[in-house]
Amino acid sequence: MNAAAVDRPATGPELFLNHVRLACLPGVGSILRKRLLDHFGSPEAIFTATAGELRAVHKVGPKLADAIATLAASRIAEETIDLCRRRGVEILAEGTAGYPRLLAQIDDPPPLLFVKGRLEPCDGLAVSIVGARHATAYGRRTAFQLAGSLARAGYTIVSGLARGIDAAAHRGALDAGGRTLAVLGSGVLSVYPPEHAELAVEVAGRGAVISEAPPLATPIPGAFPSRNRIVSGLSLGTLVVEAADRSGALITARLAGEQGREVFAVPGPIDGRMSRGSNRLIQDGAKLVTNVDDVLEELGPLFEPTPAADGREVRSPAELRLDEVERTVLAAFDRAVADAGDGQATVDVDDLLAGCELTVSRVLAAVGALEMRRIITRLPGNRLARI
Amino acid sequence: MNAAAVDRPATGPELFLNHVRLACLPGVGSILRKRLLDHFGSPEAIFTATAGELRAVHKVGPKLADAIATLAASRIAEETIDLCRRRGVEILAEGTAGYPRLLAQIDDPPPLLFVKGRLEPCDGLAVSIVGARHATAYGRRTAFQLAGSLARAGYTIVSGLARGIDAAAHRGALDAGGRTLAVLGSGVLSVYPPEHAELAVEVAGRGAVISEAPPLATPIPGAFPSRNRIVSGLSLGTLVVEAADRSGALITARLAGEQGREVFAVPGPIDGRMSRGSNRLIQDGAKLVTNVDDVLEELGPLFEPTPAADGREVRSPAELRLDEVERTVLAAFDRAVADAGDGQATVDVDDLLAGCELTVSRVLAAVGALEMRRIITRLPGNRLARI
């Protein structure tokens, strides 16, 4: 940082550079970073402060003051940005267009997000599924199934890429052809746990791996609670599938509540250690979930019908995620209802087949997918209706 | 029924006789009986009505009108009373002193209860535990344990003597040395299911087997929902341990709610058929129970401290059920606290041993029992305190 910067407050690229530099401070989690920012007003001011000024901040000792001075004189920000460019990691700054809207609403949004993969507008409709690392078969199966059902219903599944429930949730979303986001405590190029490196690649290919730490950061103690606020902060609601007493998943659920988001929990046997936390959450007011409808019932009303690119009104999250064939078949359904003009909102399957210029098998497969997505339902007498 | 009775409304023994006669009407459940009573005003008026008057009542056909005439002319009431006397079955009439106070408060209390065993005043502190006949091992284990813990804490356990959860609940109470009541759909001398005949004998020995049907009645369709209102009606709260969709236990829970009593449910795995009903109950507002404290927390405040026979104040349900040694040790504890007069409510175990004229092993066993009953608790440093 040169002297000129002191006279001219950093903006644009310079502010960004200082934020990246701040993210690179070793051993500084979101709480201490926020304290420094609150105290000095800007990352620039932190890097131009004297050692004495720095040590006036609670929990800043000589070692950290030294580290800040070293970083100020280094090119670490430039090098990090270069690394991100080479390795395909996007850096999203708070206040810019690509930054997740829901996350921006929490009390202490991360100034920067490092993103491997891609965040899309539809990821604003997200549910996090979290739980125990040492989950039981019941917990893993449940997380997998609920993640799949929610993904088919149009929601992006957020989790923490941990062993157990987290991994099952990501896999469930991927298997259902849905989108999923993994929020890490370590850097996105330093995946923890190591055996989930391959899963991280899959997640990045159909969503994103996200961290507020620079790409090569190893996890530090305290990074996980901070990480959890991003998991819940990205989501309309948090669903806890299994959690022992004092589990990190309970922290995520608490943060979700504090952030004004929905809290859901799956019950389990009262003599199972892994169900203690989730049963307790229900006692404390979390909504008990036995199937995907219990979640959709709460989240559905949060979705406002919006006009899509093609002018049609999108009535549910699932409609944002249709493939081309599904979109064609749904459009044919809506046309058939409008053409009939008899006030009935149902269409005969045979009429739908006649109305689509597609093979019978493709139409029937698309109808099946639209049923799974809870957009249409099959009525007696081979008739279809919107849900 | 002779002509004299028509001029002189039946009271006392005569009213009682007519109520027993009414209870003996074959194929008449509590709903139709109430309809007859509401229509005619008294059992006597039912038995002096003409066939035409009887058939003016909804669901009374020629067959039932005939049966009423036959019964009116018979000595069935006298014979039933005689049978009860010979076989040790007590008949409690609504409005008399021995009739259970909580049951008298419901909308349609049975006019008579046939009781094999004995109802005691402490049975007014009762919790019913009900659930699936085809319960899982988890359900049976849970019912057994919770029944035992509640029995030790001073509650009488009410259930329906059915297979599965009911039987486990009775056994749990018996094993813990507690009291238990079994309410049958059949007569108390015609136990159903037959393989629970022995369990019924044990229950009658440490509580009571109860029915509103005469002693030899076989179960009629419709008797079980009626029976369930007595199960919940006898209890401060009803706890459902496992229940499939449309289970009878859910009817009991609904009736408990309608009667203004507490409703509790034990959660279970969402993919277990036997947990569907109980999880649903929790979604609908039942209190989720993971251990006995969750129940005691709700019921405890319903208990008002009362002076016992010996003048001491009884502060919890459990104190109503102490054996002589436990009572002696608790009195010694209370004396030690009062004597110390140092404002501390704790007593050293050694001081307690010195204060009782009993062997060390008996005192320590009693202390253990008082802990199990949640009357006293052990603090660090070998000290004891009231809970």
Your description of this structure?
The structure is a homodimer of 387-residue chains. Chain A is globular and about 80 Å long. Chain A is an alpha/beta fold. In chain A, helix 13 links the parallel strand 7 (237-240) and strand 8. Chain A contains 18 helices and 14 strands. Chain A has a 9-stranded mixed β-sheet, with helices on both faces. Chain A has helices at residues 3-7, 12-23, 30-40, 43-48, 51-55, 62-73, 76-87, 101-104, 137-152, 165-175, 197-205, 223-233, 248-258, 276-283, 292-299, 324-340, 349-355, 360-372, and strands at residues 89-93, 112-117, 126-130, 156-159, 180-183, 207-211, 237-240, 262-265, 287-288, 306-307, 313-314, 346-348, 376-379, 383-386. The interface between A and B is medium-sized, with 21 and 21 residues.
In short:
The structure is a homodimer of 387-residue chains. Chain A contains 18 helices and 14 strands.
Radius of gyration of chain A: 24 Å
Category from helices, strands and their pairing of chain A: alpha/beta
Helix fraction bin of chain A: 40-55%
Query: Mean pLDDT of chain A, as a whole number?
Result: 91
Distance between the termini of chain A: 59 Å
Side by side, the strands of the main sheet of chain A go: 1-2-6-5-4-3-7-8-9
Number of strands of chain A: 14
Oligomer: homodimer
Query: Which stretches of chain A are poorly predicted, pLDDT < 50 over at least 5 residues?
Result: 1-7
Mass-distribution shape of chain A: globular
Annotation field: number of helices of chain A: 18
| Main sheet specs of chain A | 9 strands, mixed
Greatest interface (CB-CB under 8 A), with counts per chain: A-B, 21 and 21 residues
**Binned strand content of chain A:** 5-15%
